[in-house]
C-alpha cells in the first residue's frame, strides 16, 4: 500500500500538472492577461487561509483552550499520544456544543491543536475517546491538513478561470467561441480536480485511523467510537449539524450522513450492546461488502469514506 505522503505527493503533481496545462492552453490560444490576477488572488486567499484559518476554526466552533487542572484526563491522553507519535504536545481545547466530534487543526506540527466537543466527552468511554484522539494526533503527525489546503487551491483556480471565460471574457472577444470552449474545459477540469481533492480527504481519514491503532489503540475501540459518533450525530438537532457543515472535513466523521450510516452500522452490532467488539469485527472481516450505486456515488462526492468500508478496513488491520 502506498504511504499517505506518496499518495499526497502524486495528487499534488497531477493537480499542478493539470493547472499548468490549462494555463499553457489559455496563454497560447487566448493570450489572456487577467489570469495572473486570479492566480495572485487565489494564492493570496490561500495565504490568508493559512494564517487566519486556525482563528476562524476557533471562532466558528467557539473553542476554549483548557488547562491541565481543568481537564487532566484529556491532557494526559493527548500528551501520551503525542509522545508516542513523536510530535510536540498540541494545545487542547473544548468546543461547547452537543454534536459529538473531535478535530485537529493548525499551521503545522508545532502549531497543532486538538479539540473535542462537549458532546463527545459525554458519549465515549476512555478507550474510545483515546482512539479518537489518536486519530486526530495522526492527522497532525501526517501533516495532511496543510496538504489539503494546498490541494484545494487548484480547483479554486480552475473555477475562477472558467467563470471568467464563460461569463466575462468570452462574449466580448472576437474569438469568444474559443474562449467559451476553453472555459467549459476549465470547468470540466475543475470538477475532476475537486473529485481528486475529495479523494485525498478520504484517504487521509483511513491513514489517521491506522495511525491511531499504531499508537496503541485497539481496532474495536476505534470502530465503537465511530459507531457511537454516528449514533450521537443522528440524535443531534439537525440545525446544529447544519451549523457545523462548513467544518465537517475537519471532523472524525461526516455528521450530515449520520442517519443513512446508522442504518448500515446497526447491522454490525450483533449483540445490540451499542459497541462493536473484536468478535463483531472478526465477523465483518470475513464478509464481502457490496455497496449500492448510490452509496458509491455518495462516497465519491464526500469528504469522508463510506463508514461501513472504513470499519471494514479497521477489521482487516492485524
Overview of this protein structure:
- The chain has 318 residues and is mainly alpha-helical.
- It has 2 domains: 4-197, Zincin-like, CATH 3.30.2010.10; 219-316, no CATH class.
- It is built from 13 helices and 4 strands.
- The chain has helices at 4-29, 35-61, 72-85, 118-121, 126-142, 144-169, 176-214, 219-235, 238-243, 258-265, 278-285, 293-300, 307-316, and strands spanning 64-65, 91-95, 102-105, 113-117.
- The protein has a 4-stranded mixed beta sheet with strand order 1-2-4-3, with helices on both faces.
- A hairpin with a 7-residue loop joins strand 3 and strand 4.
- Helix 8 runs antiparallel to helix 13.
Quick description:
With 318 residues, the protein is mainly alpha-helical. The chain has helices spanning 4-29, 35-61, 72-85, 118-121, 126-142, 144-169, 176-214, 219-235, 238-243, 258-265, 278-285, 293-300, 307-316, and strands at 64-65, 91-95, 102-105, 113-117.
